[in-house]
Specification:
Elements: H1 6-28, H2 34-50, H3 62-77, H4 83-108, E1 112-115, E2 118-121, H5 125-147, E3 155-163, E4 166-174, E5 190-193, H6 209-212, H7 215-224, E6 230-237, E7 240-249, E8 252-255, E9 258-259, E10 264-268, E11 280-282
Parallel strand pairs: 4-11, 5-10
Antiparallel strand pairs: 1-2, 3-4, 3-8, 5-11, 6-7, 7-10, 8-9
């Protein structure tokens, strides 16, 4: 007779599901929200625990398993434009993770098992967590090249911008193909979706996408309200011989672990990423 400790089973599956959701998000280039990932992991762990309660055997039906996985994904990434991509990465990582667990079990000859889609073990919890972390690292390394952006030198990085005490957080794609530079000092210019930077402007003065399509008039309007932090930046792009972008020089910019100081940020009236994985671009 097998004795199952619900608390250990819940914790083990919570850790596994959290790592799988985290791995899927990173592979898909999605913005990670730790609390939502924890909620999704809790949904998966609750399902794993419920399976062992009397009269709950129907939960082992494949449709119930699929429904539990979908609920966990919605809790972790619901509303994301990359939900389908994240889901594919999640199921791929789950399959690879299951194979890794079976390999560890065969090599170690100990009680780490995957039974009916539920992870359980009578081993010491520290060994379980170490095994789970090892599998996560291995999966991330193996699938990292397939999941990252197609540009070899590109990567996603968190960004924190500050201006007059106000802050805005977003995700930027660090891309060597972005050659837009500040004509004053030659430093890279960050291009960001203008609507994402509304928090940097005084209340009631943040320009919307329509206003950003007429940057000269928008800058004049802001100046009339006593806010003169903006300037115009000429640029060239495919189909645009000579365009203008409304720019603002922020008081501080931190991209990943690097401090860019008083960076010039151009406000784009258009979305920069179809998938929504990033909302800013910056060169190196």
């Amino acid at each position: 007779m097998r004795v199952v400790y619900i608390d250990s089973l819940f914790l083990l599956n919570f850790v596994v599901d959290y790592l799988l959701l985290l791995c899927a998000g990173r592979l898909a280039g999605e913005t990670l929200r730790r609390r939502r990932l924890a909620l999704g992991a809790a949904v998966g762990a609750a399902y794993a625990a419920a399976v062992f309660f009397p009269g709950m055997g129907f939960l082992l039906h494949p449709l119930c398993k699929l429904a539990a996985a979908v609920l966990a994904l919605l809790a972790g990434y619901g509303g994301s434009r990359r939900l389908l991509r994240v889901s594919l990465c999640f199921f791929t990582a789950a399959a690879a993770f299951g194979g890794g667990i079976f390999a560890l079990e065969l090599l170690g000859g100990r009680g780490l098992t995957l039974h009916n889609g539920v992870f359980y073990s009578a081993m010491d919890l520290r060994v379980i967590l170490l095994s789970a972390a090892s599998c996560y690292v291995l999966i991330t390394l193996v699938f990292h090249r397939a999941g990252r952006h197609s540009a070899a030198a590109a990567e996603l990085a968190p960004v924190l911008l500050t201006l007059e005490g106000r802050k805005a957080a977003l995700t930027a794609l660090v891309d060597t193909g972005n050659t837009l530079t500040d004509p004053v000092d030659g430093r890279p210019v960050m291009v960001a979706e203008g609507e994402r930077l509304s928090r940097l402007f005084p209340q009631g003065l943040a320009p919307d996408a329509q206003a950003l399509r007429d940057p000269a008039q928008t800058m004049q309007r802001l100046a009339e309200h006593g806010w003169r932090r903006c300037r115009l930046l000429p640029y060239q792009a495919v189909g645009v011989e000579c365009g203008l972008l409304l720019c603002v020089r922020v008081d501080g910019a931190r991209v990943g672990g690097q401090d860019y100081g008083k960076l010039l940020v151009a406000l784009s009236p258009n979305r920069l990423s179809d998938g929504g994985g990033y909302s800013a671009l910056i060169g190196t």
